[in-house]
Amino acid sequence: MSDFGSAKALTDFAVRAVDGAKAVEAPFHHIEFDQFFPPDFYQRIIETLPEASDYRPMSGRAKENDLADGTPTRVKIDLFPEYTRYLPPDKRAVWDVVGRVLCSSELQAAFVRRMAPGLQRRFGVDYDKVGLFPIPVLTRDIAGYHIDPHPDTHWKGITVLIYLPRDASVAHIGTVLHKEAADGRLERAGKGQFLPNSGFAFAVDKDTWHSVDPVGPEVTTRDLIILQYFVDSGLQRILRNRGKRLGNLLLNSLRHVAKPSRQKARS
């Protein structure tokens, strides 16, 4: 890696990307950024994307998109050390530092600064005192994946999407934004481009409607990082956030215990 290989240097770079991101007010306040990671480090990210077998299926709404044979169309790896430790050493070195950058207090503070209008509208003037719990997830979508318009659950405070394509050839599969018409219907209000090292972020509220059009067969994989800051104020939310991480840790550990058995059975 280059001089940008340290978590501190990468965090500083990402913070500058967030601070310098373009603010857009319609259809709801959000920011659009590019060059989230240094270009040379972004190339390392692309070169070290995990193998399909390293991911596990998403739960919840994503399971509705499973193919007829049961193949999930969206899979994930949580970017915490307890997950990335199962990757090969060269990949683990990259994804461990990515996870640390995404969980850093400096990056969180930058997103809170830029999301101030949306956070204040939802939480009031003391929005910056609301606790947040970062959960960074590397996701992979394949042909057949889609998600209908939704505003994200109230458990979340900020949603960040960082696109990870190899080039600009699938720019058409970005996230779609929606607005509510006067009669209550949802109208398409814009579509982001799925470009390398780019993305956007918004403060979650009841009107932050967004979706993903069906991913077509021309797409091999739709790779992105979803960084979600869960509201972490109040005992219920604090216990839920840490319980969610612990539960995912146990599921992932059991999966990796079972993997050698499955491989042995096939041999």
Describe the structure.
The chain is 34% helix and 25% strand. The chain is of the alpha+beta class and 267 residues long. It has one domain (3-266): Jelly Rolls, CATH 2.60.120. The strands form 2 sheets. The protein has an 8-stranded antiparallel sheet. α1 crosses α4 (89-102) and α1 runs parallel beside α5 (105-114). The two termini are 37 Å apart. Mean pLDDT is 90; it is low at 261-267.
Short synopsis of the structure:
34% of the residues lie in helices and 25% in strands. With 267 residues, the chain is α+β, with helices and mostly antiparallel strands.
- Fraction of residues in helix: 25-40%
For CATH, the homologous superfamily is named as: q2cbj1_9rhob like domain
Query: What's the number of helices?
Result: 7
Distance between the termini: 37 Å
CATH class, anyone?
Mainly Beta
Strand segment tally: 12
Whole-number tally of structural domains: 1
Note the main attributes of this structure.
eight-stranded antiparallel beta sheet; four-stranded antiparallel beta sheet; 34% helix; 267 residues; Jelly Rolls; alpha+beta
Write the layout of secondary structure elements.
Blueprint lengths: L6 H13 L2 E3 L5 E5 L4 H9 L8 E2 L16 E5 L2 H4 L4 H14 L2 H10 L1 H8 L8 E10 L5 E4 L5 E8 L12 E5 L5 E6 L6 E6 L6 E3 L9 E10 L3 H32 L1
Antiparallel strand pairs: 1-2, 2-10, 3-4, 4-5, 5-12, 6-11, 7-10, 7-12, 8-9, 8-11
Helix pairs in contact: 1-4, 1-5
